[in-house]
């Protein structure tokens, strides 16, 4: 493991995402989320969340231009980031 690589909370998930072809940045973002590696489908669907909740999630993952996005655009960006 490289000393320059940022700390990954869930190495197993990170490596699996990289094997699926995700970029290092996207795989690291997903593997570093609070509930990385947890299963169960307990998270609310994006459509059920408020725009403010979606905005905060977009902020966490570093989506640019989020302040000007509608709820529908935030959902699209979160799903396709």
UniProtKB/TrEMBL annotation:
One Pfam family this chain carries?
DUF7218
- What InterPro entries has UniProt attached to this entry? DUF7218, Rho-like_N, Rho_N_sf
Matches recorded under SUPFAM superfamilies: Rho N-terminal domain-like (SSF68912)
Tell me where the transmembrane regions lie: none
Judging by the UniProt lineage, the source's domain of life is: Bacteria
Q: Which GO terms describe its biological process?
A: DNA-templated transcription termination
Limits of the Rho termination factor-like N-terminal domain: 50-78
Q: Where is the composition biased (Basic and acidic residues)?
A: 8-22, 36-49
- Annotated region (Disordered) at 1-49
According to UniProt, the name of this protein is Rho termination factor N-terminal domain-containing protein
């Amino acid at each position: 493991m490289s000393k320059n690589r940022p700390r990954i909370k869930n190495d197993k998930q990170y490596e699996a995402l990289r094997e699926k072809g995700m970029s290092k940045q996207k795989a690291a973002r997903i593997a570093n989320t609070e509930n990385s590696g947890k299963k169960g489908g307990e998270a609310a669907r994006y459509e059920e969340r408020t725009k403010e909740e979606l905005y905060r999630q977009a902020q966490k993952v570093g989506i640019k231009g989020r302040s000007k996005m509608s709820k529908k655009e935030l959902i699209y960006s979160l799903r396709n980031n």
